[in-house]
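Lab notebook: predicted structure, single chain.

Context: the supervisor wants predicted structures on file for every construct in the current expression panel, including those that have not yet been purified. This is the next one on the list. No modifications to the sequence; it matches the entry in the shared construct table.
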Amino acid sequence: MLNDEQKKELDKEIGTIVQARVDEAKLEWNKEVVKRFSPGHVEVIVDEADRPFKSFGEQLIAVKDFAVSDGRKFDVRLKAPTGMGEGQPSEGGFLVQTDVATQLLEKTFASSDLLSRVTRFPVSGGANAIKIPAVSDANRADGSRSGGIRAYWAAEAAAKTASQAAFDQVALELKKLVGLCYVTDELLQDAPFLEAWISNAFVKEFDFKIGDAIVNGDGAGKPLGILAAPCTYSVTAETGQGTGTIVAENIDKMWMARFGPNSANYVWLINQNIEAQLNSMAYAVGTGGVPAYMPPGGLSASPYGTLKSRPVISCEFAASLGTVGDIILADLSQYIFIDKGGLQSAASIHYKFNVDESTFRFVYRCDGQPWWKTYITPYKGTTSYQSCFVTLATSRV
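Prediction complete. Output recorded below exactly as produced.
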């Protein structure tokens, strides 16, 4: 027979073994664990119900069930944030399981023509920023290329002049994009509808805000966008050009201001309300003319319209007709975008408990800016400039 002290010690030992087995099973992320034990015997049984959540809505219902039962009904598939109690939603709530969070992020990137074209770098777990070395190269004149490297023709036995490169850094620091949603008990009862609504709504909203920042961000608490970047070059309008117009000569000037070696990377981002201007553009040939713009499915036989054989993409972030940014020639591979992990999601029933609503929070940490610090002066033709991002000035009078 065991005395009381021995029984306590045995119970403690059993509890430790059980917890270790439970933690091990949770890490495998494929089982729900039901714990059964008696003195001298420990058994961990796999239950079919401990599979990953079938849907986001099913997980939200599990959170609500835990709350309304005062903790008596607890689904072990719920995971508490690191460093906080598993059974205390007030100390941080429950994280959405990884497959749901990853699904949201993947949908965000798949749904945007902008995000699929930028250059992305991941930020490691122990950092909140990234510094990318870059060549300081703002002039293509002799002695300036590659930051100062120079080669020259020399006579036999002539003295040689040394040159050296200059370098810079592109520094980005993670910014935080957040979303918050309150869900009623009535809506929680319909898991398929809830999953479809929440996933669809937040995917669209996060995609919109990231795309808008890439084009229009001012860099204050958000990414630095194309239109605010010092490397963006704006070409002048034609003399006497009417207000709210775009003419073929504007397109020619913008195309000449691109960085030629990267021509195959460029796309045209336009506000949809300039399409009438594009459709009417033509080059004069004798008493007639030829179209300057090829609409999709027409002469170009392309899913996009084309200007200078490059895709024309309708972009709701582009400015309205007659404003800088209504048409943008962009090499988006020269835009650097960083992020850390996936879309972080959490849930809590406490904030809106008195009105029968649960709170769901979404956080995504990212940043972005153009790789170039400024537009460049070409080797020949120093009265013009070249850039990875080109816009049309507003002086159309």
